[in-house]
Amino acid sequence: MLELHHLRKTFHPGTPNEVRALRGVSLTIDEGSFVVVIGTNGSGKSTLLNSVAGTFLVDEGRIQLAGKDVTRWPEHRRAKHIGRVFQNPFTGSAPNLTIAENLALAARRGQSRGLGWALRRAELAQLRDQVREMGLGMEDRLSNVIGSLSGGQRQSLTLLMAGLQRPDLLLLDEHTAALDPKSADQVIRLTESLIRKHRLTTMMVTHSMQQAASLGDRLIMMVRGEMRYDFRGEAKRRLTPDAILAKFEEVRRIDQLDESAASLLRRRYV
Amino acid sequence: MTLLIGAVTMGLILSLLAMGVLVSFRILSFRDLTVDGSIALGGAVTAMLITSGVPPLVATLAAFASGAVAGSVTGVLATKLRINGLLAGILVMTALYSVNLRVMGKSNIPLMSHATVFTGVQRLAKSDDRWSLLVWQAPTQDAWVMLFVFAAIVAAAALLWTYFQTRHGLSMRATGDNPDMIRALGVDVGWMIVAGLALSNGLVALAGALLVQYQGFADVQMGIGMVVWGFASVIIGESLVRGKHVGLLIIGAIMGSVLFRLLVAIALRWGLNPNDLKLVTAIFVLAALVLPDLLTKFRPRAGKHTAEVPAHA
Ligand SMILES: Nc1ncnc2c1ncn2[C@@H]1O[C@H](COP(=O)(O)OP(=O)(O)OP(=O)(O)O)[C@@H](O)[C@H]1O
Ligand SMILES: [Mg+2]
């Protein structure tokens, strides 16, 4: 479903602020697979998801999505295949439009938008049913503006919006990080049921060891712009939160070793 | 009474300007300064076409098209060439000054002896007919023109509202509200801004077209300060309707424009020097922008948020 070949991305190249955010990442994700992505701050998780979504073009490498080479496609063109939920609940919906209007926009993700009526009665009824199914009691508030909702409610709606048009790939970037624990639980339950219902291929970034251990059928760990670990199948199933924490500890020790080796070399040769 | 009818008619005509500014400043969150140039462009195109024998209605529609082109240029500069939005508007506005002079061939074109879109309406009454309401009297012709303009504005407003209910119009509103979101839903935000600025400046040029036919002449200077007038109308309108629905915003812009012209007429009647009008308007807009913030600062957590959505270009 998704093939990444040797992706590289450097921000601010040739300046003192140069950041090599992706240093040759290759990854193939099968149809229907649910991949959890973890890693320390600044390790390139968001950069990885953003390069797939097309927020920016990669410097090197090739991205193959749903059988098409989308490497040079702009973001709005890739949107046809990709549903997204962002870390910030404000990013995924338009605050001054009503719930119904936001849903109607999402229902036509990646399709042409002509001069047809945006909110037909039949379509509206269908959307209302979908919102009712979520069980958050928002079906009677469809004509309220989204800005009047809580972060958790907005995030739940964004999830629903991402699934209205079945996406070939669902990208979730720490989509529960800004929520209180109760809302986060709720959004995670919704996420699971959405993915199961539509059998979605998913990449989910998280900092929660609990989520990383319990969700998904594959776990990859990013370290400094590289993919350091890749657990799948039985190996993924056996992972516990503690085991994942231990991996982080291991990475930290190796990196410290790298660090001290580097400074040793520097002292000797520079 | 004649004064009142004049001010209302003027306010109605300029409500097209207010609707245009509403589309760019409020719907798209794009501070577009092309307006000063495109209202004069609409006037110039109309005057030039009418004096060369083109039917007034066709000339008026051509004005809309010319404004749309001007708006698209600003849009392309801002989104494709990535020039700061304010600067893009200023560049096009400045360039339009020369364009307008070229179109007109001179700095002022009188239309007195030519038929306009209002001529047919004026023929409904004889020029010395009086129309009276209680103790007031006014030329019947002026009243007919006002009614005609009112009908035209209602039609334009209805069309604009209808557009914003379509998929394309809804996507445009989302573009101004949250470009990241709508891009992730597959809309090319750049072209959407171009389309929005075309619509906005088309409306503005339409205001220019009606204005020159109403006042009987086109002048290359007629656009100066118009963006601020339009913005003033939008702000007044927002305080009148207090709602975020597009329909309310459009009605607000029209009401704001009429009220603004009435205030201006009253102020002039009371002895305001016409030369000071733009200064007073600018101070008024400044106050309207700053006061709500100041008030919420003095009463923390009391008022609702009036913070502006930052322009994204
Ligand atoms: N648009 C950008 N411009 C400049 N630098 C960027 C940009 N996006 C990311 N970076 C840099 O690239 C590196 C990787 O960032 P990225 O956001 O991918 O990390 P992350 O793994 O998602 O971290 P976090 O857990 O904090 O979200 C960081 O050093 C970051 O500062
Ligand atoms: Mg991140």
Note down, in words, how this protein is organized.
The complex is a heterodimer of chains A (270) and B (313). Chain A has nine helices and ten strands. Chain A has one domain: P-loop containing nucleotide triphosphate hydrolases (Rossmann fold). Chain A is globular, with a radius of gyration of 20 Å. The longest helix of chain A has 29 residues, at 241-269. In chain A, the strands form two sheets. Chain A has a six-stranded mixed beta sheet with strand order 6-7-8-3-9-10, sandwiched between helices. Chain A has a four-stranded antiparallel beta sheet with strand order 2-1-4-5, covered by helices on one side. Chain A is of the alpha/beta class. The mean pLDDT of chain A is 91. Chain B contains twelve helices and four strands, in the order H-H-H-H-E-H-E-E-H-H-H-H-E-H-H-H. Chain B is globular and about 60 Å long. In chain B, helix 1 packs across helix 11 (246-269), helix 2 (35-51) runs antiparallel to helix 3 and helix 6 (140-165) runs antiparallel to helix 11 (246-269). Helices cover 71% and strands 4% of the residues of chain B. Chain B has a domain at 2-125 and 135-223. The structure holds adenosine-5'-triphosphate and magnesium ion. Adenosine-5'-triphosphate (ATP) binds at residues 11-12, 19, 21, 39, 41-47 of chain A.
Summarize it.
Chain A is α/β, with parallel strands linked by helices. Helix content of chain A is 40%, strand content 23%.
**How far is the first residue's CA from the last residue's CA of chain B?**
45 Å
The CATH H-level homologous superfamily of chain A = P-loop containing nucleotide triphosphate hydrolases
The figure for the number of domains of chain A is 1
Radius of gyration of chain B, rounded?
Answer: 20 Å
Mean pLDDT of chain A: 91
- Strand/helix succession of chain B: HHHHEHEEHHHHEHHH
The hetero compounds bound to this protein are:
adenosine-5'-triphosphate, magnesium ion
Estimate the helix proportion of chain B, in percent.
over 70%
Biggest sheet, spatial arrangement of strands of chain B: 1-4
Specify the overall morphology of chain B: globular
